[in-house]
Specification:
Blueprint lengths: L25 H12 L5 H14 L4 H11 L3 H23 L3 H14 L1
């Protein structure tokens, strides 16, 4: 069967990180929690699809509306979770790119206060 859309070797997928398919992210946890609370039968599968899409492509307005409807939350709640996840990802990238002690210390403080 032919692939519909870009294939795995196409330049459009150059930034795709396969670990995102299983990566535990704040948005994935938030989405799974909200979908489960709303009684969504496929909460884990939906979170597995939209969590990487959130980081890789962002969420368009139609996806925000769909997720808000499925999770029984308002649009602003989805957008806030989306932005918080991207902020978390930016901090991960900063640590990966510049692991100096100042950045590391700030991130450890953030983690400590989150627990």
């Amino acid at each position: 069967m032919p692939i519909i859309g870009p294939g795995p070797d196409d330049p459009e997928n150059d930034a795709w990180d396969p670990s995102w398919e299983n990566q535990d992210t704040p948005f994935r946890r938030w989405l799974y929690e909200k979908l489960t609370a709303a009684g969504c039968e496929y909460a884990a599968d939906t979170a597995a699809i939209y969590a990487p899409a959130n980081r890789y492509n962002g969420l368009d307005d139609a996806e925000v509306v769909l997720l808000a409807t499925l999770a029984s939350v308002n649009l602003d709640a989805v957008r806030a979770a989306h932005k918080a996840d991207l902020g978390d990802w930016a901090r991960e990238q900063q640590l990966r790119d510049h692991p100096d002690l100042v950045v590391l210390d700030a991130d450890l403080d953030r983690i400590r206060h989150r627990a």
